[in-house]
Task: structure prediction
Amino acid sequence: MGTSTRGHAGGSTTAGRLVVGLDGTTKGWVAIILADGRFCSAKTFAKAGDAIAAYPEAQFFGIDIPIGFPPDAPKRKADTLARELLKERRDCCFFAPPLSILRASSAKKQGAEKRRLGAKPSPFAWGLKKKILEVDDLVVEHGVRLREVHPEVSFREMNNGQPVRHKKKSWTGIMIRRRLLKEQGIELPDQIELDQHAGPDDILDAAAAAWTAWRCASRATGLYSVPAKREAELDRGRPVAIWV
Result:
């Protein structure tokens, strides 16, 4: 299965309703597991599928990666609206590259798709190609249990609808986000021992993803998606939306 047992912190993963938040790292994924909305443990995984297999009882997985790509659209409505919500922090939300470009079998076909759609994927977005396709392959099997999140949109919701102005890798940014999580009942321990490739910002992002996953599981008052589910574009019959 390829899971890592390193990084376990906190209580048992057998008690309470579970949700999992996943954030990509340079070498894999970091997972924050919540039981009944409270921090339970943290782990690293080589593949997103490994994390899903490790927690078959989890009700939802909040994943910080684009899920769903409307056919023949150069940009997703979800990304455009999320960037509007984040205001001056909009650059931390990239436009997901169209799936047809990511799955093109050659550079020539990639170029043809870019020209056909008028799409210009950013280098950062293109760098996430492997992880985007990895998660896209899991959607058919796991369906609605997988919910796309954007941590900064989730932190904005925790912060009374105001984007967190300080960057997540700054000391102030880390402290603000940790406090916001604590106010929501997610108290991250002082010591979380994970592989070196999982940094503090990855842990915070995974925790924010888990918070949104818990809101989905508990049907929290005010839960919504960007765009609203009824207004979302569709991909293979599934709404393309960032859950909050």
